[in-house]
Structures
1.
Amino acid sequence: MISRRAFAAYLAGGAAVASALLLPGWWQISGPGAAPPLPRLPLPLGEMSFSMQDHTGAEVSPQGLVGKPSLVFFGYTFCPDVCPTTLSDISTWLSGLGADAARLNAVFITVDPGRDTLPAMAQYMQHFHPAISGWRGSLAETDKAVAGFRASYTLGEGAEGEGADYAVEHTSSVFLFKADGRLAALIDLHEDRAQAVAKIQRVLQR
Amino acid sequence: MKHIPFALALFAAFPAPLAADQQNIIAERVWSRASMGENRPGVAYMELHNTGSGTRTLTGVETGRAAMAQIHQTSTSASGVSQMAPAGDIDILPGTRIALEPGGLHIMLMQLDRPLAEGEYYHLTLIFKNGDNVEIRVPVLAASARGPGQ
């Protein structure tokens, strides 16, 4: 027993020494002292691979967006706060652009195809700027889209249940792509309107 | 056109006795979005101003319209991922105000009895730790509304 206790003490001591040696390294490399990781950039739209339907039932793909600048973002129609706010922001930007809005694609992709059926998407999109297209695909296609954008989503607790009441955690930045399909900028949730419209106008001027 | 009914709604929403209770919590810029379908959650936003001399702690909310009502906080990570979580108790220090606004704190209404319809009102009770609850009347704006004036 004594030797086992001594061995345990020895182990604990060794662990303490190892932590003392490793902690500063951890602090700088992956701890709070580290620079925040740079988000990985999405692939160019032309190199992404997924197929979905828009809220009118038409077949759509990321390649179809190339040729015009595009605003794309992820969300779900059961989202009470962030998604209607973002859709309403994009509606305001598009209205602010006037006739120039026609030179732009605007796409909302659902990360909750289980609840967001095509009729649900069609009903939801009526409330926002008519130029915004609502895309929905199978779970597999949704995952391919999310991977191409280097975005992420996680279905909340209860998502397995019937008629479930769950939230979805998801990338909320709006992706702004140039006409050639390469990323121009990200527009974050709390960015002000003037800044967002300026970013869009810069891409439209190219 | 939506501005005029809303201006009227503001007057209707804040008759003096409802807006300022004895404990000096004033709810301003109160609004809610129309919800869609039978089971999508609703949301309500407002500013709460503590004009009294003591800290007030908001612990929850209740409404006859929703089986479950909670105060949630949306937070967005450095990598741009947003999530919602219950906000817990919220202290409002004397002389300060807290904003429940899009992309931040908000009241989430789950299991609504029926969808919140644009143009209607409902009552919401703000529950405070000292037991002095505040009843407010919430106007329902368009599903695309972005703030109390839109």
2.
Amino acid sequence: MPRRFAFPGTEVVLTIIVVAFAVVFAVATPQFLTLSNAVDLVEGYSVTTILAAGVFVVLVSGGIDISFAATASVTQYVAAFAATRYGCGPVTAIGLGCLLGFVLGSINALLTYYLRIVSIIVTIATGSIYYALLIYLTDGTEIYNLPAWWTDRVVFVQARMVSGELIRITLPIVIVMVVVIATHLLMTQTKLGRQIYAVGGNLDAAGRVGIDIRNILVLVYGYLGVLAGVAGFVQAHRVHQAVPTAMFGTELSVLAVAVLGGASLIGGVGSMPGVVLGVLLLAILQNGLNLLGVSSYFFGVVIGLTILVSTSINGYSEKHLRRRGTIDVSPS
Amino acid sequence: MTDARMTNNQATRLPMQLDRLVAALKDGGSNISGLVLLLLALFALFGVLLPESFLRLTTLQAMMYQLPELGLLSLAMVIPLISGGLNLAIIATANQAALLMAWILTLCMPAGTEGLGLGLWIAGALAAGFLLCLIIGATTGFIVSVMNVHPILVTLGVQTLVGGVSVWLTRGKTISGFPEPLLWISNETVMGIPISFLAFAIMAFVVHVVLTRTPLGIRIHMVGSNSEATRYSGVDTRRVIIWVYVLSSLLCWFAAIIMMARFNSAGADIAQSYLLITVLAAMLGGVDPYGGFGRIVGLVVSLVILQTISSGFNLLGISAHLTLALWGVTLLLVMAVKRIAAYWRVLVPARKRGLTDSPNSRMDQTT
């Protein structure tokens, strides 16, 4: 029953911190609490959020994936290559990217399942392989001439506020909304979602109940692979080019965001709203400090401190919750 | 956590577990023979492919020049791994220590300092770096053990924070131009062996001795194999964990000195790509990803394997990026072979080579 405490706990704590920071920044700078800033924020963090949603599912299943940044780079490049060299349309190119993402993700799942290696080790190896092959085969050359359907800004809703600011709901915002809602529904409303929680909570028990663990793992890592494909597409859409090295090195920060949102590294625990709050916390901090004129060189310090403080609070409170719940109280 | 609280059962379990651990520490030669075979095979392969250039002293020497940085960083990674954790902050720690020492030696030290004065300045700089690493390590260990946070999270936070401070203070710039005696570490050789390699070899030996022959080392293994059981056996696991991260950070300090000398510069973004490779090297060397088991000998052999692949590919004119891919493939292959070998041993009991068939030894083989 510890989840009853841990579950809402993290989200409530995060909400309080997020609101507190938002209030501070709103008082400090007038630009912060505007609709256009909020919309920009969502668009700016779209790629991170999409990836974090996939990582969250893998974390719940009890695994850790480091290779998704490499997967996103590979799928992005292959889709861009297909679109520029062979003139593939949006459906074919994006479909190809997502399919490739699924395949690369399933490779991780099958290696984890059959070799019984911890997923973090498998994905360090496969991530190195995917990324190294990509750089080797492409020589690190960028693709600039992406077709118009890929780079043109798609605006779904456009409105001018009374204050005169322009609000645009663009493609990345819509995609991120769809991904977040779909992931949330998958994890809370479907049988598959409950099975993923079960596998992450106790692998042996899940197996004995009759859950096909191999299939679950393939779907979980494949899902992250597909989302990596989507993230690769959105990233290229925003910067108008496909650069093989663009997403290299983002894996640990995305992982940090997912865990900040309460997804446990041991598996079986976490929720999509929590992960969104984790992204929101970092986004608000960075954006607020930016508006206050704090040097961007200082962001690393703030993010590091945020991770340490918030996870320490969580760890410490969990420890005390657990102690209160156990019969055998250990001496401190 | 005090001895008085231990029940009889726990008191007898501790020596039993200790025996198993000591046996695992002393044995384990069978684990490494496979790796040594792989290494010999690689040497033979490159020897045939490159009859002119590979099997020569200069190649060997070049490998010795390149190995120490990754080697020392891997040593810094392997101690937390054996304790059942992970230290993702090693590169950030090493870079910050290097930056601090570089700052003292280039900007604080008056130009033209020589002789005894120079020696004192260098000693002071080294001491400052040592102190910094000590603080970082102790803080990391404190948060992991006392605040009860998963090591991946803590070290991810520490990495971001320490790296962030370095970037903030240097604005992303590098510091270069160090006094002669420091560069001497990377340039001079003793009987053909580079000093940096000797330093690595000595450090590897020291870490090996600490991990296998001291009470602290045994406790680190115990915490890695079962932290709760170790705590109930009367070991202050929190102190052990703090020591783990302090030792890891101090090895980063050592790595920082070697890296400074080799690159003749220090910066916030140096050697970032080594981080996951140190984990890869440790796993290839037979360190248990769940903690508790792992030997420095295995790690050293695995480092030599990685370096051989890299040097051989370099001489063959194959891209350095393919080297990274092949490192990944090697790790997966070795893991696969181990898995199949484990199945083999379980399925064919006759092949147990006359081992005493206690439940413990069977468990050792299958895991």
